[in-house]
Amino acid sequence: MAVELDKHNSAIQAREPMQPSPFELINRIRERARAAAKTIVLPEAFDPRILRAADAATAEGLARVILVGNPEDLGKIAAEAEADIDKALVVDPEASGMLDWFASQYYERRKHKGITEAQAQMAVREPLFFGAMMVNTGMCDGMVAGSMSPTAKLIQAALHCVGPRPGLKTVSSFFLMATPMKEFGVNGALIYADAGVVPEPTSEQLADITAAAADHCRLLLEADPLVALLSFSTMGSAEHPLVAKVRQALEMIRGRYPGLKVDGEMQLDAAIVPEVAQMKAPKSEVAGRANTLIFPDLNAGNIGYKLTERLARAKAVGPVLQGLAAPINDLSRGCKWEEIYDAIAITAIQATLNDEDKK
Fold first, then answer.
1. Among 267, 288, 262, 266, residue whose Cα is nearest residue 277
2. Distance separating alpha carbons of residues 23 and 27, to the nearest angstrom
3. What percentage of the chain has pLDDT greater than the value 70?
4. Is 110 exposed, middle or buried (0-12, 13-18, 19+ CB in 10 A)?
């Protein structure tokens, strides 16, 4: 299989790139993905949008792509979608010779939960699980899926096959928000977390979400994270159990990551507007300058990113999953192929975190 991948990778050729993004950060991410030269598996290859994204990604050298499915069937779908998948590697699970190996690996990971060998065999035949096992065994660097599957199913496959990143217990998500308003965040770009996975995070989960989001600020924004824990209260202006939860999270974060610049609890305007920060939190090194916003729950995070997207004319990239041992990312079922393309780019860059961990 490794020989086939090497032969396939050497055949990738470049073409004219897709339309540049109006946001400099998105173009920078695409450039970095090309330089990273990672291999990404797309297990929902029966979706024409996936095939169009695979066409663009391989032709432009964004990433090496593996498509999971029957070659003949995918060829027909690709022809109808006017997608060229000749530069992608197509892997048919039934003909791959890998099912027994994957089932054995999966059984060893899940037998403590009572799974049987027969159940393991069935599980790894599902495209999401087959793709996740390719990530687990190092056959590729990451996975992008979800255009035809619910988020819960994707996260199940990710947790069962890859597991959480060492030191973290919570799988969460963030949105990369690119706005035309250069005065905020890092030249208009911010990290919003969690806006897609954990409905009512505990203080400990907020701490995990913060740690993972800070890593992604460094990785994607290429900046020192300035993290604000958001609330309807700023530095004790209100008392409520919801505020207390955020304060407890701050104590945990400072205890675990003493070098991280993080503060809270604070209202959004105090987090990103210097004039408001000077009045409400004058002693904070984060207030007024935050580039990483941690929302207290999914209601706030989801509303917040959509408001920013619509009212500030921002580009929202995500939800990007975080807290996993290897990058596996979710797609909206209403996504466009261009969004899949950018999800591939981000997944490729996330895979470089694993390179750093191995050093």
1. 288
2. 7
3. 92
4. middle
